[in-house]
Amino acid sequence: MEAKFEKIRRQANSKLENQKLYARTLIAIEETIREQNGTLSPVAYFGAIMTTLQATASENEVTGALLYLLNDVFPDLPQSVLRSKFNDIMPILEGVYELNKDQQPVVRSIIGCMQELLANQDASVWSMPLAKKAYQMLLILSANASPKARKAAQDAVRSILSRSPPPCTVHPAANGTAEFILRVLQETTKSDQHATQQILALLRSIIPYWPPNQFSTLCQTLLQLPKFNNIFLTKAAFEVFETLFDAQETDIDEPKFAALLRSICDMKPAAVDDRLLPTWLMIISKAYPAYAKVNSGQCGADIATVFSVIFNDFQQESRSYKSIANCLIALLDYCVTDDMVAQASQGIENGVTQIVSVVESGLGVHFQPAWVQVMMVQQALFKRLHFASSPLMNGCVALLGELRLSPAESYKEQLDKTLGAAIATMGPEHFLAILPLNLEGNEGGIGRAFLLPLLKTYTTNTNLAYFVNVLMPLGDRLAEKGQQAKDREMELQAKVYETLVNQIWSLAPGFCDLPKDLCITFNDSVAERFSSLLYSQPELRPTVAQSLQYLVDKNQALVRSAASDEDLQKAYGVSKTQAGENLKHMSKFSVNYLAVFFNVYSQIAAAYRGFLAEVIKSYLSVATPQDVNSTFKKVLGLLSQALESGNTTPATNDPSMPPPMSHTMLDLAVVMIPYLDAESIELLYNGTVTSLLGKEDEPPLQKKGYKVLKHLIDSPKGRQVALNHIDELQSKVLEATASCTVSARKDRIKGLFSIVQILPSSDLHFIPAILSETVVSSKDSNEKTRNVAFSLLVEMGEKMKQGGVVKNSKLEGLDETVPDAPASIGEYFTMVTAGLAGTTAHMIAATITALSRIFFEFKDEISADLALELLETINVFVGANNREIVRSALGYLKVCIVVLDDSLLGPQLVQVVDSLLKCSHQTKNHFKPKIRHIFERLIRRFGYERVAEAVPQEDKKLISNIQKRRMRAKRKKAAATNGDESSDEEDNAARQSAKKVGAGFHDAYEEVLYGSESELEGSDDEDNEMISNVKAALAAKQGGNKKKNQKQDADTFIREGADDTPLDFLDRSALARITSTKPQQKKKQSLAKSAQYNDEGRMIFNESDDSDSGDDSDGGEEVDETDYYMLAQKSADGFVRTEQNKIRFKKGGKDVDDDDAMDVDEESAKRKKKKAVKKQYELIGKEYRSKRAGGDVKSKDKADPYAYMPLGKVIKKKGRSKGPRVTFTGRVKR
User: Fold this and answer.
1) Chain-centre distance of CA 1073, in angstroms?
2) Please, is 593 exposed, middle or buried when counting C-beta atoms within 10 Å of its C-beta (0-12, 13-18, 19+)?
3) Which of 253, 704, 967, 1143 reaches 20 to 30 Å from 768, CA-CA?
4) β-strand partners of 1146
């Protein structure tokens, strides 16, 4: 209500009289309420408006304004007020209505008021004459009023009926509404069919609330409407039927329902009737599924006839093919029962066999225009029949196969989908029995190699035996033929056979996707064949590995399914019990397969063996614990042998070669950790902390050692082992600090993160021991290392916040007399700030960066004094002489400006401004854009006047310039976005997003630090590229939460040439036109400024080619003549260097050919091309040209100014060059 009233108040000075009247009436009502010391509540508005309405004459124009306001107040009034004042309000509204029937705005306001009044009454009121009379008035208006009032009345009736007073399930007025509508339909159908359409619109909206006992009468009435041959009336009746059957429940008995459906079928429009047919089809698609709920057997028996009638419409030219197909698909999905399918599959004739016959006939030539939609219906039928598709749909598949031999582009895609549906439902065995592949050419049939990609895509949940007994031998025979062709040096034929073999083996994952006969078919010989392929066919390893993985993963997914065995058996032919037996069967092969996988894993390069790691995990999950641990001990033994032999460094740096055995065994150990028992984990833990963490001379091993440690701690059993040895673990990790290599730093930080997560509250002294290392890592050159270090800083803060004791006596360099400190977030900040006393600028800068991160995370947990002290301390570093320190300090200031409360930041504004100005003076232009951006943030936060007061007089020019540029950019942005000034909204959004960050996530922090966009005009700085990259990444992560009109700046630009021709990327000089800074566009001079005028003020047009205007002839960018580098890059007369360090000059905006390139050391730049002589043209008829007008003039004693031309001067013999040459533009070339 308040939002609506706020809009009304703004219209007090509107040019429209009605808006002005509403606004002034509202202001007067509010003044009256305030004079009586009342609050502007809905009840107060109601009382004031009703009092004024009673005191005002009903014909007064103010009455309409009062009712308009009352309509907005009623929805917010308490139900008790509406019920208690019902008898007082209704007579007033009826009286006003009688006097203002012709005033449509008044009528609509009255309808809105009556809607809320009646909808909030209890059941007893609906028996009173007053309520019945008011509701009857709404019904009459819903049929006879003007369009807007009629629509409002219909919405009011629907709203009232949808809000039944408890305990009624059907509204007390529903029966009266039904009687009224049926009476109107009977009375107006013959005399006023337009009124019938209007009442049908009301009927369609209230069908969900129609009384159940009136459904039969309603259907009989609606069935009479199409007999009047009014297409609009018929369509409206069909739409009501559609809504009726779409309702959840219809209380119609079965015989009447069947009769109703027969009547609807008799009203079927012609196939060419594009108006009525789609609506009728929609009725059928909803009526028969509703009938199936009442009597599924009878519906299934009747469906074949209806299906055939509708399907035959595909033979007619129509634009409703899609609607026909959707209707038929709905009938197949909801009306064909499982019993019908089972009977048809047993050879019993029923509705399903009739439907199959009809659908099969749809591939005839008479249906060709609708083949795409016919195939859609066939796909639905395949899916409905599922396993029974064979043999019921065999004839259809044969016809589809014939069409596929020479398909047209219009239906080829749909044809492939239909064949795929056949493969997925009847299975490859039955499908290929109908359409054999004939790849060997011995059968004399048609080769169908095009089916292999379809088989690969759609094969699933079938019998594995067909692949083992048929396709695998076929692949072997083709491979043998390929080898014979290769021996005869028939390379092309050998390549074809090789491709066919690979395609056949690519079918293996589909056959292994939940096969029905796994326990029977997958025996030792099949397992050995798969194993041999892993060894002998490297190109087939991913396919074979995926197949073996599917055998385990798909059965595990079925066992975990929440569906019942009956549903699973029906959908997949496999129950949970069978899936469990399949897993037990595969566990028998797990030990041997793990050995095969490990051997193959050691033969593949590290970058290409990720797929085998997933397969190993699958088979570890089904292997017995004894087998897993015995296998792990073998891996551990091989690892020990490799470490003892010293063969731990790769023989070559070739990434395609497999790594050393020690690296491979460690990778396998990482994969096996989740499946090991406590004893094996203990062995791995001891070997890792004693042998790997200190491998300073072998960085890859050290890196993998930290990776193993992290995965150990992340596993449940490994976490317990680590807790049992927590003291030893801490000491070993701290001892390895100095020996940590650069490549292992990221994984070490990850390991420390895992250790901190399990750290007991009594061992928090580990946090200050690793704090300095973590702080320095936050400034690492590797981005991933920095992110992990930030996560560790936050995690350590969370651990300190949980409480505990920091035993300072256990820290290195401190004696036992140092007292312990209680763990808190304040103590944590004290630890971190100790780094500000570091001896190197890098340490100080890293500490400030770490402080900014944890301050952003824990800003709400620290005290105000600590936050103020930190701000004052960092303020000092802003004025430091070291750029690295200043950069970090400016980042901290930026975070403070965004997240710190005004009460803390405001008193420090003068000190912040002084430090920024001092930094600006010291660093000259290096941090100028950053400082300017921070000033802009301060202005947006505190206002220009307050910031300007803190700036000394000698620096007023700087802040004034920033404000001018800011306002200029703001005006341009507002003009571009229709006045949407969103800078303050962006600032508030940044501060809100800063409150929503979770631990370990840096999106909001990075958005504050890097992503706050400057709105200053032309504020291009050296950080723009980095900022745009960060913002692009954030936008991708956050799903595009920013405004749609906010565009990211491009990273790379192409500088246009002098002649505005497109850039030729094949040209050697193309690289010189690529730049990371946005080129300035050439300013086009307006015609008014470039025109020339004579003494009389008339415009002069220069007809010659060489213009005297001041435009640059080269069309390039303006280049400062003292900037020789940019002059060489952008000037048309500049030069570029070739790869051989030769200079190539650019003349006239085009590069000289390579033949003209000169060596800098040998030749001079004396060679110059002669300036081309400009071609001179002579205009024909120039003696007729007017000097002061735009046309020609006639001269005395001369011919008229037409294109007279001596033919002798034009038509000359070939080869003669004397005389002028005339162009088509009327110019004579000398």
Assistant:
1) 34
2) buried
3) 704
4) 1151
**Strand intervals (E) in 30-144:** none
Q: Enter the tokens of residue 1214.
A: 């070939």
Q: Which residues contact 459 (CB under 8 A, 6 or more apart)?
A: 423, 424, 428, 507, 510, 511, 513
For 808-856, the pLDDT digits (tens) are 878 877 777 788 888 999 999 999 999 998 889 999 999 999 999 999 9
DSSP SS3 for 1010: coil
The two tokens of residue 1167 are 């060679």
pTM of the model: 0.70
Place of tokens 């016959």: 357
Distance CA 974, CA 1146 (A): 43
End-to-end C-alpha distance for the chain, whole angstroms: 85
Pairing verdict, β 1142-1147 and 1150-1151: antiparallel
Q: 1027 falls in which pLDDT band (50, 70, 90)?
A: very low
Among 324, 322, 221, 220, which residue's Cα sits nearest to residue 269? Answer: 324
Q: How confident is the model at residue 749 (pLDDT cuts 50, 70, 90)?
A: very high
* CA separation for the pair 551, 586 (Å, rounded): 8
Alpha-carbon dihedral of residues 362, 366, 368, 370, nearest 10 degrees? -70
Nearest-angstrom CA–CA distance, 118 and 126: 9
Output the furthest CA–CA distance in the chain (Å, rounded). Answer: 126
389 compared with 216, residue with greater pLDDT: 389
Q: Which of 542, 524, 523, 544 is nearest to 533 (CA)?
A: 544
Residue that wins the pLDDT comparison between 1021 and 1145: 1145
Q: Is 247 exposed, middle or buried (0-12, 13-18, 19+ CB in 10 A)?
A: middle
- What would the two tokens of residue 8 be? 């009304």
Cα-based angle 65, 66, 68 (whole degrees, multiple of 5): 65
Number of Cβ within a 10 Å radius of residue 913: 21
Asked if 889 and 877 count as a contact pair (C-beta separation under 8 A), the reply is: yes
Alpha-carbon gap, residue 777 to 798, rounded angstroms: 19
Bond prior to 167 in cis (omega within 30° of 0):
yes
The whole-angstrom separation of Cα 614 and Cα 957 is 65
Q: Phi-psi bin for 80: left (phi > 0), alpha (psi -120 to 50), beta?
A: alpha
Type of residue found at 247:
A
Strands, E assignment, 858-1012:
none
